[in-house]
Each structure stands twice: as structure tokens, then as C-alpha cells.
Amino acid sequence: MVHQLKTETKCFKAVKAGHKLFEVRKNDRDFRVGDYLALNELSADGKKYTGDSILLRVLYILDDARFLRDGYVVLGCAGCTVKRDAAECKEPDVLFGSERAIAEAEA
Fold it and tell me: What does DSSP assign to residue 97?
């Protein structure tokens, strides 16, 4: 499954630079290992999308009440390249996909 997620510029840039390979998210989407996260960058004012996106694959999920607020998870991720027939994920490189490529991976 591909989850389309809004992402603030600060966090988006950290992922794009390869410094942040995890997401802390409310688990209202039933995230699972093997899912894809399509991070879509929001403008600085948070009112519109910039058009920049990154595709990540979920490799690990931390769901432990000792460390997280109730209902939240930490998703360990790897960047992906998107090919016509499938998405290929490699760790720890962060590679990028366009929205069209994300749609192709979802099909």
C-alpha cells in the first residue's frame, strides 16, 4: 500500500539529504512493514504542496508505549527508486520518485 503523507519542509529536507530515515506518525492508517510512504512536501506556510515528493519503503515499525505517545509509531524507512514494473528499495540511500512514478508503483 502507498500512503500519501503531508510533510513539513524541515522534515522533508532532512529526508531528502539522507539524514532522517524514519517517520513518527499517528497510526491511523494501519501502517505495515512493506508499505510505501509518499512524502509530499508542504510549502513553508503549510497551505499548499511544493510539488516535491519522495518515496520510502517501511522496513521496521516501533509500536511501544514505553517510548511513544498512545497511538503513535516510529517507521524505519529506506529510500526507493521506482521502475516501470516495481519499486526497488535500497538501504541506506535516499532516492526520489515523482508523483507519476508513485502512481505507477501503486498500480
Answer: -
Smallest Cα–Cα separation from 92: which of 51, 60, 67? 60
Is 60 exceeded by the pLDDT of residue 101?
Answer: no
| Per-residue pLDDT tens digits for 35-44 | 999 999 999 8
pTM of the complete model: 0.74
Say whether pLDDT at 70 is over 90: yes
- E strand or H helix at 73, and its extent? strand 72-82
59, pLDDT greater than 60:
yes
Q: List phi, psi (to 5°) of 67.
A: -115, -15
The helix (run of H) or strand (run of E) holding residue 106 is helix 99-106
Can you spell out the DSSP letters for 6-72? EE-HHHHHHHHTTS--EEEEE-SS---TT-EEEEEEEPTTSSSEEEEEEEEEEEEEE--TTTS-TTE
Residue pair 4/106 in contact (Cβ under 8 Å)? The answer is no
Burial class of residue 85, CB neighbours in 10 A (0-12, 13-18, 19+): exposed
